[in-house]
Amino acid sequence: MLVRRKNLVIAISVLLALETPASTAQITFVSHSLGSNIWTATGIGTGDVDGDGDIDALSRRDSYGVHMLINNSAAAPPLFKRHIVWGGGQDVEFRVEDMDGDGDNDIISSTSSIHPCFFDNDGASLPTFTRSFPILERGAPEIEDMDGDGDYDVVLGNWRGSIYFAENHGVSPLSFTVHPVAPDIGSACRATIADVDSDGDPDIIAAFIVANAVRWYENNGAQPLAFSAHDISVGPEAVLASRAYGADMNGDGDTDVIHATATGAVWIHLNNGDKPPTFTTSLLHDAGGSLRAMAIGDIDNDGHLDVVVSSTGAIEIAWLRNDGQLAPAFISEVVHLTSNAHNLALADLDGDGDLDVLTPWRWFQNTVPCPWDLDSDGAIGSSDLAQLVGTWGQYGVPANFAGAAVGADDLAELIGRWGPCP
Length: 422
Hints:
single chain, mainly beta, four-stranded antiparallel sheet, globular
């Protein structure tokens, strides 16, 4: 046994010493329907609604109401079966979370101009929902435990420019107390959640489209919770700011901010790590026209967060690939040519370990023609081998070529493909 292990170590050491030519691995996106009779759908959300371990989708089709698109992961690619959650409504923002702590995922839906609607999941394999309106204020919802008490609260941003924190009391039926965070400034507002100052408390980031501002609201982490406003951008780059998100875009451990404008520009504000945070601002992308939607996630599994946008200027859904530098540049790749993607979401619908792109009526399957190229450098070589060895014995990771836990079969397959991707 010791001799076999020693031989394996020697073989791996030799392979790690080999040099392989590098090129750019090409990710392609294959278009699939989310189901029949949803081509007029608006809004998109994702989550495991039926508790079977795969990701389902949510959308709204005109006046026909909120639809749950159940993922049949046994098919390849997955097929989706439509079920009506509720008829009617204007909801286009969907969030999926276990709001009442009963072990199944519920739905909260709204827009910036209506009251959030809570759909309580009954936990069945094909769930039915009980609808209620426990939050007596309007706004598009974001979900997080803002006060650290172990249950999920709701942050709302609405068309008047108001931001609210809805405190979950952790009782059944759901009950919330609504606290104002930002006053009504007569300017449509989109609010999201991230820990901007890295103090362990979730803060709020907001874009104000008429006030031409991007701000963050510092969570004081105390009881009662209070928020202090700080400007990120009030310059020309913030004109018609329509949405903003927080994420560590350059891998330095700080939360950066990305905001988009209604005119198609995307700006990045790199957090300098100061206390309080300061930011260095630059243009990330400009497609022109109207920017419809934006999402952030690691599309190519290289450890760096990318951006996906839809716009009418370029008439496309574009993947803005992060080059991984401390001051990152973003390379635009086309996901799909369309001018109708009003909403976007990212989720691993097919369970293959990478993020797919969703619109309200179609999804775009993220496929890598060379799955053994784990580091996406265009060749199977030493770093791919190191990644495989580092996940030895694990399930559900990219090196599961053979379908079981990463092991000798996967190693043999990778070595058999050594060299440039075909």
